[in-house]
Structure formats: structure tokens, C-alpha cells
């Protein structure tokens, strides 16, 4: 659903693993990020896009996002994942756990491939272990879908904490996912969904042939600047089946590179050229992300700072129940007197 004409697009930030570590190395920089007018920050952009792959230090995206969320109070984070390094069950546990810890300020961004894994395979002449699945659009789509389903296997409101009847949770509402696709996952998770609702799932699409799959499963899609205009029509034609409001469509964010020394006027010109995008992802190309974070403040000077759960701050509707007929795992609890 495109932004209204004349309104400013939302701003976001993309950090490589090394840049995320630079933020964590300096308390003042962490505080600057927390005060910045950003809808969210992608953690692990170097694990999603091939530009500059393998250069410099990196970090596990989910671990870095966890520490960043713990050291901030307002900033929101999407951590990078891909089918070549993550399995849906482990991924869903991390997503749900981080959703609880951050009070809904976190989510997941899926990519088709991980350039670091590809670089490792090249160095070992392909003799290293295959971590989970090969890189591919179908694999990324199924990873995102299975992760969404698993997070819904234990609804948060199944926890009733009824002391009088001595019932902690309605076990009969905990469901199996029974997902059969590229991955075969039964579930359920061993922890409930976050109190704030389903975690946000994004897709970083580097090519046009990923857009249809991305639009089918993601709350928002991030694309290179040059794909923004064509991506809008693909997203508008999506089914919206993963939203409780089926008339809603995924948000579109376009990536704008921010080299060191970028002036605010140049950045404004680049953001204006991203036709049809709901938001802009500023991607610093140097090792120090400070200038890009400060640039966000200049671009949205005087604007309201984002607050609350990420799904709400992006104006996304609740997620659809993907398991309406999911088989129960436990019998109904018996009241104890």
C-alpha cells in the first residue's frame, strides 16, 4: 500500500555485522541510534546482499540484534536470516524469544542467500557442510512461512494463569504446525508467541524474480533503489493472505547507499527518486555508521520518534491465523480444586 502523496517516507537503517559491532563498542553511538527517527534497523545487511561480501568483521545477526535491543529502549531491529544457515524451528524460537525480550521491537528479515556462507564454500572448494538448505527463492519463502506458522503454534492468550482452578495455560489451544514444504516441521514451539503479537517478517529482495514470493509471505519487502518502481505493482497484486486484513499489502522499502560525507540534499534527492516506496533504508557504505544515523536525524528533523511494537509503528495489521485447523497437542485442562 503506497504512502500518501506528499508525506515523508519512513526511514530505516541497514547495518553490516561489523557496523553493528561498532555501534555496540560505543555507548554514545548506541544512544544516538536509540534516539534516531528510524522505523527499524536491519542487523546483518552483509548477510543479505552481495555488495562487499566477506569484507571486514561480522557478527551473528540475531545475537547482535539481541544485545542492541537490550541496550536500547525505542529502536527496533530486524535480524538477517537465510535458508543456507537457519532452520525454521531454531529461527522461530529466536524470533519469538527476542519478541518477548524486546516487547515487540524486533523481527526477521529473510534473504535468499548468505554471501558469507558462499564465500566459505568457495574457500573450502565446496567441501564444507551444507548447513540447512541451498540458496533459493523457494527455500527462502518456505523458511519464512514455516517460521511464521511455528510462532503461532502457542498463542499468547492460551496462558490464562487461573489460580483458582490451578490452570496455567490452555494446553488444548497449543497446536502443531504440521508444515510440509521444503522443510518438514511439526512443532509446536516450547514458548508462547510474544504478547505484542506476531513478529514482523521482512524479505530483502536483490532481484526482481524474488518479488512475487516475497510479497506472498512478508510484511514488508526491501529492494535495491533501482527495483522500487517495478516492485510496487508486484506487491499491490499480492494476496495479502498473511494479514488479518486481507486488503492490506506488504510495505515497500528501497535501499539508498550512504557513502561517507553524503550531504542531506543528496540523500533527499535519492529518497525522492524511489517512486512508490513506503520507506527508505539508509545503508552506510563505510565502516562507521555514525554519519548515516546523524543523516536520518537531519532528514526527519522535528519528526516524531517511533515508539511501541514494530508491527504497530509500521501501521501493519495483525497477522492472519495461519493454523485455524491446526491439530491440538494436549487435552483440555481439568480444573483442580
Automatic annotation (TrEMBL):
Source organism superkingdom: Bacteria
Signal sequence, renumbered to the chain = none
Keywords (A to Z) from UniProt: Flavoprotein, FMN, Monooxygenase, Oxidoreductase
Species of origin reads Actinomadura montaniterrae
Cite the PANTHER family for this sequence.
ALKANESULFONATE MONOOXYGENASE-RELATED (PTHR30011), C2H2 FINGER DOMAIN TRANSCRIPTION FACTOR (EUROFUNG)-RELATED (PTHR30011:SF16)
GO terms of molecular function: monooxygenase activity; oxidoreductase activity, acting on paired donors, with incorporation or reduction of molecular oxygen
Q: What protein is this chain from?
A: LLM class flavin-dependent oxidoreductase
The record, for InterPro entries, names: Diverse_substr_monoxygenases, Luciferase-like_sf
Amino acid at each position: 500500500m503506497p504512502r500518501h502523496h506528499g508525506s515523508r517516507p519512513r526511514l530505516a537503517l541497514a547495518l553490516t555485522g561489523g557496523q553493528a559491532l561498532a555501534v555496540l563498542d560505543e555507548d554514545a553511538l548506541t544512544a544516538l541510534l536509540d534516539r534516531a527517527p528510524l522505523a527499524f534497523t536491519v542487523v546483518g545487511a552483509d548477510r543479505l546482499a552481495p555488495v562487499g561480501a566477506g569484507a571486514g568483521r561480522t557478527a551473528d545477526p540475531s545475537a547482535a540484534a539481541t544485545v542492541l535491543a537490550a541496550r536500547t529502549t525505542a529502536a527496533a531491529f530486524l535480524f538477517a536470516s537465510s535458508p543456507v544457515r537457519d532452520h525454521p524451528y531454531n529461527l522461530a524460537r529466536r524470533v519469538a524469544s527476542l519478541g518477548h525480550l524486546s516487547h515487540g521491537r524486533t523481527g526477521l528479515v529473510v534473504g535468499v542467500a548468505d554471501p558469507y556462507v558462499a564465500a566459505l564454500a568457495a574457500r573450502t572448494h565446496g567441501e564444507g557442510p551444507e548447513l540447512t538448505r541451498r540458496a533459493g527463492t523457494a527455500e527462502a519463502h518456505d523458511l519464512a512461512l514455516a517460521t511464521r506458522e511455528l510462532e503461532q503454534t502457542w498463542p499468547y492468550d492460551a496462558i490464562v494463569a487461573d489460580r483458582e482452578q490451578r490452570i496455567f495455560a490452555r494446553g488444548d489451544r497449543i497446536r502443531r504446525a504440521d508444515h510440509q514444504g521444503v522443510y518438514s516441521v511439526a512443532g509446536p514451539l516450547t514458548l508462547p508467541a510474544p504478547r505484542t503479537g506476531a513478529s514482523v517478517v521482512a524479505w530483502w529482495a536483490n532481484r526482481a524474480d524474488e518479488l512475487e514470493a516475497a510479497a506472498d509471505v512478508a510484511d514488508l519487502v526491501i529492494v535495491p533503489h533501482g527495483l522500487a518502481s517495478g516492485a510496487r505493482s508486484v506487491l499491490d497484486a499480492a494476496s495479502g493472505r498473511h494479514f488479518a486484513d486481507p486488503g492490506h499489502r506488504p510495505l515497500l522499502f528501497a535501499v539508498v547507499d550512504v557513502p561517507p560525507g553524503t550531504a542531506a540534499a543528496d540523500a533527499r534527492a535519492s529518497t525522492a527518486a524511489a517512486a512508490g516506496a513506503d520507506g527508505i533504508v539508509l545503508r552506510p557504505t563505510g565502516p562507521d555508521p555514525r554519519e548515516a544515523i546523524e543523516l536520518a536525524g537531519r532528514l526527519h528533523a522535528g519528526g516524531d520518534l517511533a515508539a511501541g511494537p514494530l508491527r504497530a509503528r509500521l501501521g501493519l495489521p495483525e497477522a492472519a491465523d495461519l493454523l485455524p485447523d491446526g491439530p491440538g497437542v494436549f487435552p483440555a485442562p481439568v480444573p483442580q480444586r
